[in-house]
Specification:
Layout: E1 2-4, E2 10-16, E3 23-28, H1 41-49, E4 55-60, H2 78-93, E5 99-104, H3 106-111, E6 119-125, H4 138-142, E7 147-152, H5 160-166, E8 173-178, H6 189-206
Parallel strand pairs: 3-4, 3-5, 5-6, 6-7, 7-8
Antiparallel strand pairs: 1-2, 2-4
Helix pairs in contact: 1-6
Length: 207
Amino acid sequence: MRLQTADGLELEAEWSAAAEPRATAVLCHPHPQYGGTMRSIVISALFEALPGRGISCLRFNFRGVERSAGESSAGRDEPLDVLAALDAAAERSGARGPTVLIGWSFGADMALTIDDERIAGWVAIAPPLRFRTATDYEAVGADPRPKLLILAAHDEFRAPSEIEDETSRWNTTRSEVVAGASHFFIGRTERVVTLAGAFVDDLAARV
């Protein structure tokens, strides 16, 4: 797939349709300047597993990554990329079931800036909450729609307790700490898939 951003860039993306779709997930990858792409380990695990649970997935490369046009802006303009992915997912899914934004690391920070009426909930996997200012997350934090934070017990960038403290005033937000996990979730991706899938399953069951 090719996505078109509001500022005129064409982005590379892939769509995996569930055989009997109940929901849609838009997947946002880690920081481009540290090797993050839509094929990074956690994003790939979700993209491969969730369609089998009835959750169609769209993953994309942020601007400047692989065959996506433009240049990385270190988080300034990347929310436009997430919105372009939401547009494409809505078109492909035909609005069948809820749409959830799922991001890992930098991608989680970008997802948590998007307060769009089409989103049923957010899954933020190891969000550093550092790639935008604190005020950029306020709208989603105050929103009553559900949010799941999947945190790594041994995160090298920010301890789970720091993220839990920073989000303690957010509405409808719960956290799950993955035991034994580093920021990269090597050997723990199955647990991430289970938690994210259950979150989306719960939203789909409410529709």
